[in-house]
Design a protein that fits this description.
With 77 residues, the chain is mostly helical. The radius of gyration is 14 Å and the shape is globular. 14% of the residues are buried.
Length: 77
């Protein structure tokens, strides 16, 4: 659960403050962030961390990490 919540913080779906109120606990903030992610990515917005949600989140995180590493390579000017 903590890994999911940390990923949600990276994606702006959960604030750090909200994360620190219950790391590892699937509460209403985690569910709301998960539903928001699902709606954004045309998945059933049921607040359940399904396999399709996991794959979509992993893909978005990979793209985010890839673009961040690309910008760091160019920032050495």
């Amino acid at each position: 659960m903590k890994e999911l919540q940390q990923a949600m913080v990276k994606l702006g779906l959960l604030t750090r403050d909200a994360y620190h109120t219950g790391p590892g606990v699937f509460g209403p903030r985690t569910q709301a962030g998960l539903e928001q992610f699902q709606r954004r990515h045309q998945l059933p917005a049921n607040g359940v961390f399904t396999e399709s949600t996991r794959r979509a989140m992993a893909a978005v995180l990979a793209r985010t990490a890839s673009s961040a590493s690309s910008s760091h390579r160019c920032s050495g000017f």
